[in-house]
Amino acid sequence: MCGGWTVFQRRGDGSVSFNRGWDDYRVGFGDLRSEFWLGNSPLHRLVTQRHCSLRIHLSDWSQEQHQASYRDFRRAGPLPLHVSGFSGTISDSFGWYHDGQDFGTPDSGDLCAEVCHSGWWFRQCFQANLNGVYYQV
After folding, report:
1. Is the pLDDT of residue 112 over 70?
2. d(Cα 25, Cα 31) in Å, to the nearest integer?
3. In angstroms, rounded to a whole number, what is the distance separating the alpha carbons of residues 61 and 69?
4. Fewest C-beta in 10 Å: which of 16, 47, 55, 114?
5. pTM of the model
6. What does the DSSP 8-state code read for residue 101?
């Protein structure tokens, strides 16, 4: 942990579009009381200052709750994501497919970001993308 948990992304009702460019993802967007992305710059500062863990909470379309935890969450350099030490109630598609990837956005030339209409640490377009299009049930 980083001295407590910091929420850097929240989705819940699709009220905020995550189909945004690099500048928005860099500084953050949305409403901290509902849906938001904290920002890549604040996230970078957070994970480079100390050892951090990552916990992901998900609800599926039948409202079942799932979680994934990573003992190690950091930047492997100036931009790439690094996650390891997985445990959880879902498969590890985030760490398995996206570890070591740079963050891409639709306007940064990242084909997966363009196809998926969002910013994310893409290696394969459709494995794990928590910023993707929000579909209503």
Report:
1. yes
2. 14
3. 21
4. 55
5. 0.85
6. P
What torsion, rounded to 10 degrees, do the Cα atoms 4, 87, 127, 84 define?
A: 70
Number of H helices, E strands in the chain: 4, 6
- Closest Cα to residue 116, out of 134, 102, 100? 134
Distance spanning both ends of the chain, measured CA to CA: 33
Nearest 5°: phi and psi at 124?
-120, 140
At residue 11, the pLDDT reads: 93
Q: In this predicted model, what pLDDT tens digit does every residue of 34-92 receive, in sequence order? A: 999 999 998 888 888 778 888 989 888 888 999 999 898 887 555 577 888 899 998 88
Task: Report the run of H or E that residue 97 belongs to, with start and end.
Answer: helix 93-98
Strand partners, 56: 68
